[in-house]
């Protein structure tokens, strides 16, 4: 009997741990790379969908076994079970919650259009502090070096102490877009077309650049370069430290899409409905097929790119721009896909939060379907052996 259970434990130790990865804030990390921790390969099938009670602008965030997403009309932050979509808790504000939350150290931070930034206990939803930003918050908060950085609808930009909720410094008339950070600098674009690199600790300006345009998108920091698109569709590449313009690229369409990056390639969408892939020197590698106006950020998962459009198409491309899979959501999407923990999560303007998982079958897209899928059992051969050994051990005991 003892030898049987030793064998069982040895086999269990051989099974790789299926750990729940985290996507803890907007575009995955402080630099906004939008690269998932683990690969997810199409085709995908709907595992669950649930109602958010109102349109979803907020992109889902995955942290410590909980999915967080804001609801517009419902005016709440929702905490969902990522495996089932069941609600764990919710927190009501006085206006729509459209910004993507950020989570760290057991807490979740988000902004509401009621003019406050909230910090809650991630496990229970209990309020820890709220910061009066004095204007609606559409910007997604960034957690970086024990501070929260966020912009407001009137253009103000704040640095908030993550632990206490106290204001540390602010910049007037700066930004609505969501900030990115790298190497002690905060990068953010302003509505007046000024791009700022700010010292994370003091708020002093390391450098600025005036584009004579405006920014609705957010920056990406990647390999010593900062990328951002202007509203009119120019992609800028700045030297991250000095602010010199390394190159620009005319995308030919309006763009609110935040760039993402992987393996030396920059990906960005436009209102023209296509994804552009550019090298780090600014040369065009390819342009995708038409999917409808793209506001969202392209998500990179292994060798796959996931995108969504306002037309309601969720799609997967390879890194050469070829379509691998697509799905008709049945309604428009402004949220960017979140990929980690073996699933893709996305919200829709019809008020749905949806989860997709890998499937070996070819799925039949249906915008009205809402299957409740049971996750497939990994490593069936190994588990079958474990079951056999357990059975053998029990038989020996009964004798």
Automatic annotation (TrEMBL):
<feature type="domain" description="Pyrrolo-quinoline quinone repeat">
    <location>
        <begin position="298"/>
        <end position="361"/>
    </location>
</feature>
<dbReference type="InterPro" id="IPR018391">
    <property type="entry name" value="PQQ_b-propeller_rpt"/>
</dbReference>
<feature type="domain" description="Pyrrolo-quinoline quinone repeat">
    <location>
        <begin position="164"/>
        <end position="290"/>
    </location>
</feature>
<dbReference type="Pfam" id="PF13360">
    <property type="entry name" value="PQQ_2"/>
</dbReference>
<feature type="domain" description="Pyrrolo-quinoline quinone repeat">
    <location>
        <begin position="46"/>
        <end position="94"/>
    </location>
</feature>
<protein>
    <recommendedName>
        <fullName>Pyrrolo-quinoline quinone repeat domain-containing protein</fullName>
    </recommendedName>
</protein>
<dbReference type="InterPro" id="IPR002372">
    <property type="entry name" value="PQQ_rpt_dom"/>
</dbReference>
<dbReference type="InterPro" id="IPR015943">
    <property type="entry name" value="WD40/YVTN_repeat-like_dom_sf"/>
</dbReference>
<dbReference type="InterPro" id="IPR011047">
    <property type="entry name" value="Quinoprotein_ADH-like_sf"/>
</dbReference>
């Amino acid at each position: 009997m003892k030898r049987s259970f030793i064998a069982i434990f040895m086999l269990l130790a051989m099974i790789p741990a299926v750990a729940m990865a985290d996507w803890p804030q907007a575009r995955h990390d402080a630099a906004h790379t939008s690269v998932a921790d683990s690969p997810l390969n199409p085709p995908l099938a709907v595992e669950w969908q649930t109602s958010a009670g109102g349109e979803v602008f907020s992109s889902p965030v995955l942290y410590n076994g909980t999915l967080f997403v804001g609801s517009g009309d419902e005016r709440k932050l929702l905490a969902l079970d990522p495996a089932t979509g069941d609600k764990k808790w919710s927190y009501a504000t006085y206006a729509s919650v459209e910004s993507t939350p950020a989570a760290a150290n057991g807490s979740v931070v988000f902004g509401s259009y009621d003019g406050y930034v909230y910090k809650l206990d991630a496990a229970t939803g209990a309020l820890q502090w709220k910061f009066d930003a004095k204007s609606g918050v559409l910007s997604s908060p960034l957690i970086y070096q024990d501070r929260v950085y966020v912009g407001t609808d009137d253009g103000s930009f704040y640095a908030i102490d993550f632990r206490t909720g106290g204001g540390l410094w602010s910049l007037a008339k700066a930004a609505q877009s969501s900030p990115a950070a790298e190497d002690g600098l905060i990068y953010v674009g302003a509505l007046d077309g000024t791009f700022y690199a700010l010292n994370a600790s003091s708020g002093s300006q390391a450098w600025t650049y005036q584009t004579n345009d405006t920014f609705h998108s957010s920056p990406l920091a990647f390999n010593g370069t900062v990328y951002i698109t202007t509203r009119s569709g120019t992609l800028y590449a700045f030297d991250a430290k000095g602010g010199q313009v390394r190159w620009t690229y005319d995308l030919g369409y309006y763009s609110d899409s935040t760039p993402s990056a992987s393996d030396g390639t920059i990906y960005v969408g436009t209102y023209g409905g296509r994804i552009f892939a550019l090298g780090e020197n600014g040369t065009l590698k390819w342009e995708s097929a038409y999917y409808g106006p793209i506001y969202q950020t392209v998500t990179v998962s292994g060798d796959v790119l996931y995108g969504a459009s306002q037309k309601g198409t969720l799609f997967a491309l390879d890194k050469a721009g070829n379509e691998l899979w697509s799905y008709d959501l049945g309604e428009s999407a402004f949220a960017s896909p979140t990929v980690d923990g073996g699933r893709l999560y996305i919200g829709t303007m019809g008020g749905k939060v949806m989860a997709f998982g890998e499937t070996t079958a070819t799925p039949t897209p249906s915008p009205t379907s809402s299957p409740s899928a049971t996750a497939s059992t990994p490593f069936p051969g190994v588990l079958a052996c474990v079951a056999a050994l357990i059975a053998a051990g029990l038989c020996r005991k009964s004798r």
